[in-house]
Write a structure and sequence with these properties.
Helix content: 40-55%
Number of domains: 3
Strand content: under 5%
Family: Belongs to the oligopeptide OPT transporter (TC 2.A.67.1) family.
Number of strands: 5
Organism: Tripterygium wilfordii (Thunder God vine)
Protein name: Oligopeptide transporter
InterPro entries: Oligpept_transpt, OPT
Number of helices: 19
Shape: globular
GO biological process, one term: protein transport
Largest sheet: 3 strands, antiparallel
Distance between the termini: 56 Å
Order of helices and strands: HHEHEHEHHHEEHHHHHHHHHHHH
Radius of gyration: 26 Å
Strand order of the largest sheet: 2-1-3
């Protein structure tokens, strides 16, 4: 009890935990994150078989019927019990086994799931290509969420204590609004039988519409880094930066990042080891059973064996069914944007102070750092801050030109 009393947790919460037979210390130990599995109804009789396979004793959670605590070091995604349990759920009745409340089916090719257990337990491996995607609901909810989050977050950014509205807020709110739109909007088909045939209400609000609208929201929720540059130059350095120049700085910097993302897609997105832990939080909310998820947190550690995994996982293979955006598109966008940036810096040199070779230097730094920093972020969810040393190196190159130190 002395150890429990020292935990930085509310007393009411500690009383609740102890009353339900839980060990309060698990909420303070960084390497012991609570995790649970759920047995299907009527399968409690097979607990001993499951225990023998995972080599772990399962004890019921009194306050969460059907759930059993599971240590974080126990791997279940590739066990026989887990796989057979999911096959039963998908194809037939009458066979036993365990399924995690956030687990997904085996791959469509019958092979193993993602080598990353957190991904295997969170991201479904099935897909329905027939679901409508770019619908009236998608565009309406997506654009509204993007505009509102962009305005609100930018408006409150300049407060001494900024207020930030995360994209997950919009993601949650979209669900009831989407279903409301599906029930109220007419399902009339316009231009029926013609090439431009469409309907404002093609059916029930589906997960793909939800995902796409959330992508819109994410695009607006994040702060544009170039805005900080513009604000610093105008407010602190009292330098003239017209609206047109400021807008061009913002647009070119954003498109530049978009180009880098496309070029490095094959290295930072397609490999199975690049699992982007932060995104799993939002992905889990797209599942219909997300409210039943009893895992209080996800461990962000990645094993060396998973990191060295170079083959595509089942999710990347599933995406191959759809036409990919060609990589040369991103390359063209990147090169054209670099040329446009050089022209802008030369034409408005009196305001930006950045010579053409300074643009190339900045692009060289981006090429050098994007891949290693992207790998670290994609596998550990950690961000390496470049702002601690990049401005110093730039300042040594461009002495007495403070505007460059912010733009470059």
């Amino acid at each position: 009890m002395d150890k429990v009393s020292e935990l930085p947790l509310p007393e009411d919460f500690l009383d609740f935990v102890e009353a339900n037979g839980l060990d309060p210390s698990i909420y303070a130990a960084g390497d012991c994150i609570p995790r649970y599995v759920r047995l299907k109804l009527g399968r409690e009789a097979h607990v001993e078989e499951i225990e023998a396979e995972i080599k772990c004793k399962l004890e019921k959670v009194g306050w969460l019927p059907g759930f059993y605590p599971l240590p974080t070091d126990i791997q279940i995604a590739n066990t026989k019990a887990y796989k057979e349990g999911k096959k039963e759920e998908t194809y037939k009745e009458g066979k036993d086994d365990v399924s995690c409340s956030r687990a997904s089916e085996d791959g469509p090719d019958g092979g193993e799931n993602s080598p990353i257990e957190q991904v295997a337990l969170t991201v479904p491996t099935t897909d329905d290509p027939s679901l409508p995607t770019f619908t009236f609901r998608t565009w309406t909810l997506g654009i509204l969420a993007c505009v509102l989050l962009s305005f609100v977050n930018q408006f409150f950014l300049y407060r001494r204590e900024p207020l930030t509205v995360a994209a997950t807020c919009a993601q949650i709110v979209m669900v009831p609004i989407g279903h409301l739109m599906a029930s109220m909007i007419t399902n009339r088909v316009f231009f029926k039988g013609q090439k431009w045939e469409f309907s404002l209400n093609p059916g029930p609000f589906n997960v793909k519409e939800h995902v796409l609208a959330t992508i819109f929201a994410n695009a607006g929720a994040g702060s544009v880094y170039a805005i900080h540059v513009v604000s610093t130059v105008k407010v602190f350095y009292k330098k003239e930066l017209t609206f047109v120049v400021a807008l061009l700085v913002v647009l070119t910097s954003q498109v530049l990042g978009f180009g880098w993302a496309g070029v490095f897609r094959r290295y930072l997105v397609q490999p199975a080891a690049m699992w982007w832990p932060q995104n799993l939080v939002q992905v889990s909310l797209f599942r219909p059973d997300c409210c039943c998820c009893s895992c209080s947190a996800l461990p962000w550690e990645l094993s060396i064996s998973a990191f060295e995994e170079k083959t595509m996982d089942v999710h990347t293979k599933s995406m191959r069914k759809y036409k990919q955006v060609p990589e040369w598109w991103f390359m063209c966008i990147l090169l054209l944007n670099i040329l446009a940036t050089i022209f802008i810096c030369e034409y408005y040199n009196d305001q930006l102070q950045l010579p053409w070779w300074g643009v190339l230097l900045a692009c060289g730094l981006a090429i050098f750092f994007t891949l290693p920093m992207g790998i670290i972020k994609a596998t550990t969810n950690q961000v390496v801050p470049l702002l601690t040393h990049s401005p110093v190196n730039v300042a040594r190159t461009f002495v007495s030109k403070m505007v460059i130190n912010n733009i470059a």
